[in-house]
Design goal:
Mean pLDDT: 83
Number of helices: 29
Helix content: over 70%
Shape: globular
Radius of gyration: 26 Å
Largest sheet: none
Oligomer: single chain
Low-confidence stretches: 1-14, 574-580, 660-669
Number of strands: 0
Order of helices and strands: HHHHHHHHHHHHHHHHHHHHHHHHHHHHH
Structural class: mainly alpha
Strand content: under 5%
Distance between the termini: 42 Å
């Protein structure tokens, strides 16, 4: 790399870092000047990772295990994250050392009192428990605020206040409860596994951390380079190729890393300039990257680790969830790629010359072996190996496999760096899961969840579509500004039971709320992934957000499709009990029918949105084509036939217009 290229690369990296800090709160970190302090924080982070690897095989009592995960994690947060963006980042403030000490005091107290809690006191809180509970909750709230901003801590604070006021006269009758005292509330939050150290933290410590660590090892071995090169080789030369490269590369990386904003910036610095060079507008280029990055978290096999949380939450096997999620995710990406393709056709945007692109064979020869850990992971999980063990083994396999080629070989320093990076990347999820524990604790203590579910289902009583629509809005509000994992956990806790309450099977309900909690990241007004894409592309944030919404239209339709026709999940959930954990396959003819009509419908809808289908579409033509597309998407035989006729007619008419369109271009030249 020349001096000029190196300088340009460094400048683009600095710009990306600034954009990431602007839209991703967890990227605002300290850079201590003191070498001893830097080494201390690094060793602390590496220890945190090694602790999780060790306890995979040497487990601790559940409460202590979860408390250690939280206490050490928030201590790291106070060392790494400044109090606010404008605070000095070259040192750790004295009061942060106090907060670190308090984190360990809280943990030490639980270790000291654990035997008494389990035997003598029988889980009954005393005054010391209340004091330590208040301190720990305050620490967790502050850690989450530093890493993620105010949205989630504010929501948790509202839920924490609820038990104190739920018995007062001004409360709505449906939410009224008996009075709760300090012992009830803070004891429930601190000395049980139903509050602060709830199942959300249990998922974080047991396997989410390990999968984040797995992603850190893959990144160190050069997995991102493999996805970029492979996408370039496969799609770079196609019509509008760079945008298709962005969709493919960002989809793969998004599935692994679980951070929409981080993925937008990480891959966007490479893909967005390419898109702009071939003629895509800045707003469109930023929106493509945002839509593809967010969609990665609905894409099996990893789904940003959400697939494993869903398995833990629902009791449904990972293999069933991955199979069910596959076709809807592919439909989503088909919709994004189709819009990209039609936009390129409308604006006559070409691809990159093949001579300037890597070859598939060369890419696979150089880095293809890096896919082995992912294949191994799928194999382990398909054979029902415990999730934590599967993650542990694949980390080891990633290290071994990286040694196959010099270009991917991980040194001891790379391994050390991956341990540190994994710990740092896990902190936002740890903090979010701990804060969500406050929400879960309040709901479990007061039974308010039952009333919230009743209010949603009661409003839409007897009207499935209205219930789905209200649940969609609730999920998007709950998911605003949150990464995919906490967004899923909180929507699964509050919104998914509303659907299960009206007879929608558990897996269908959880996938539905997962989609909409996730797509809050690209839905204005809080569209952080879209804003990050706009920052890199130099576009307008809100216009990029609305463009992202258009590109992601399939993601807003597909969940309704699989609620009304679960056959598209390739499992037969109809007529089975809501707590069923395994589902037989639906009839082959149903699967084939829904596959074909859904694909044609999504492509036709994308053409209608872009106003291009082999040739430009008039306003009336777009409306007619959109109607035909929606007919195909509705799961009925008659609507499918009508939709096929409409779409086929529009296509034939437009294909007949193409030669005349080309002739006009030639004569004008």
């Amino acid at each position: 790399m020349s001096h000029t290229q190196t300088k340009q690369h460094d400048e683009s990296t600095l710009d990306a870092d600034k954009i990431l800090e602007k839209f991703d709160r967890e990227s605002v970190v300290r850079q201590p000047q003191n070498a001893y302090l830097r080494h201390f924080i690094t060793l602390f982070a590496v220890f945190y990772s090694l602790f999780h690897l060790y306890t995979t095989y040497k487990p601790m009592p559940e409460l202590l295990y979860r408390a250690t995960h939280v206490a050490v994690g928030i201590a790291l947060v106070f060392l790494i994250y400044p109090t606010h963006k404008k605070q000095r980042r070259d040192a750790v403030a004295w009061y942060d050392w106090v907060l670190v000490a308090l984190s360990f005091v809280s943990l030490g107290y639980l270790f000291k009192e654990y035997n008494a809690l389990a035997t003598v006191r029988g889980g009954i809180a005393n005054n010391a428990d209340i004091v330590m509970s208040i301190i720990t909750i305050a620490l967790v709230m502050e850690a989450a605020r530093r890493v993620m901003g105010l949205i989630l801590p504010t929501l948790a604070a509202i839920f924490l206040i609820f038990p104190f006021i739920s018995h007062l006269n001004f409360m709505p009758r449906v939410l009224a409860t008996r009075p709760f005292d300090l012992n009830d509330i803070f004891g429930h939050m601190f000395i049980t596994t139903e509050g602060l150290y709830s199942s959300a933290v249990g998922a974080s410590v047991s396997f989410i951390f390990l999968f984040i660590l797995f992603g850190a090892f893959l990144n160190k071995s050069g997995m991102g380079q493999l996805f970029n090169d492979l996408a370039l080789a496969l799609a770079g030369h196609k019509q509008g190729g760079p945008a298709k490269v962005a969709v493919v590369a960002s989809g793969f990386m998004g599935s692994i890393n679980g951070s929409a904003v981080g993925n937008v910036v990480g891959t966007g610095v490479f893909t967005i300039p390419m898109m702009k060079r071939v003629g895509y507008s800045p707003n469109f280029a930023g929106a493509v990257e945002a839509s593809a990055s967010v969609g990665g978290q609905i894409l099996p096999p990893i789904m940003g680790a959400s697939a494993f949380i869903m398995a833990e939450t629902t009791g449904i096997s990972y293999g069933t969830i991955a199979l069910a999620a596959l076709f809807p995710a592919l439909l989503y990406y088909l919709g994004v790629i189709a819009q990209v393709h039609f936009r390129a056709g409308k604006d006559n945007l070409k691809g990159i010359p093949k001579a300037d692109l890597p070859r598939v064979k060369e890419v696979l020869k150089e880095r293809g072996h890096l896919m082995i850990p992912i294949f191994a992971l799928v194999y382990f999980l398909a054979n029902n190996l415990p999730i934590s063990y599967a993650a542990f083994y694949t980390i080891g396999i990633a290290i071994v496999v990286s040694q196959f080629r010099k270009s991917t070989r991980m040194t001891f320093k790379d391994i050390f760096d991956a341990l540190e990076d994994g710990a740092r990347q896990s902190l936002s999820v740890m903090a979010a899961c701990a804060v969500i524990g406050v929400v879960i604790g309040s709901l479990s203590l007061t039974s308010a969840a039952t009333e919230l579910i009743g209010s949603i289902t009661g409003t839409g009583e007897g009207m499935l579509f209205l219930t789905l629509f209200l649940t969609m809005i609730a999920s998007m509000i709950l998911g605003m500004g949150l990464p995919s994992i906490p967004a899923y956990i909180i929507t699964a806790t509050i919104a998914a039971p509303a659907l299960a309450n009206i007879g929608i099977p558990t897996l269908v309900a959880h996938l539905f709320v997962f989609y909409f909690g996730l797509f809050a990241n690209i839905t204005p007004p809080v569209a952080l992934a879209s804003f990050a894409g706009a920052g890199i592309a130099g576009g307008h944030p809100m216009r990029t957000g609305w463009q992202s919404l258009k590109l992601s239209m399939a993601g807003f339709i597909v969940p309704f499709m699989f609620v009304y026709n679960p056959a598209m999940l390739f499992i037969d959930v109809t007529g089975l009990p809501m707590n069923a954990t395994e589902f037989p396959a639906p009839p082959l003819l149903d699967m084939l029918s829904i596959t074909v009509t859904s694909i044609i419908g999504i492509i036709a809808l994308s053409a209608a949105v872009e106003g291009y289908f082999k040739a430009g579409l008039s306003g009336i033509g777009r409306i007619i084509l959109a109607g035909g597309a929606l007919m195909l998407i509705v799961p009925e035989t008659m609507t499918d036939i009508i939709g096929l006729v409409i779409v086929g007619t529009v296509l034939v008419i437009n294909m007949k217009r193409v030669p005349f369109k080309l002739l006009n271009k030639v004569t004008t030249l």
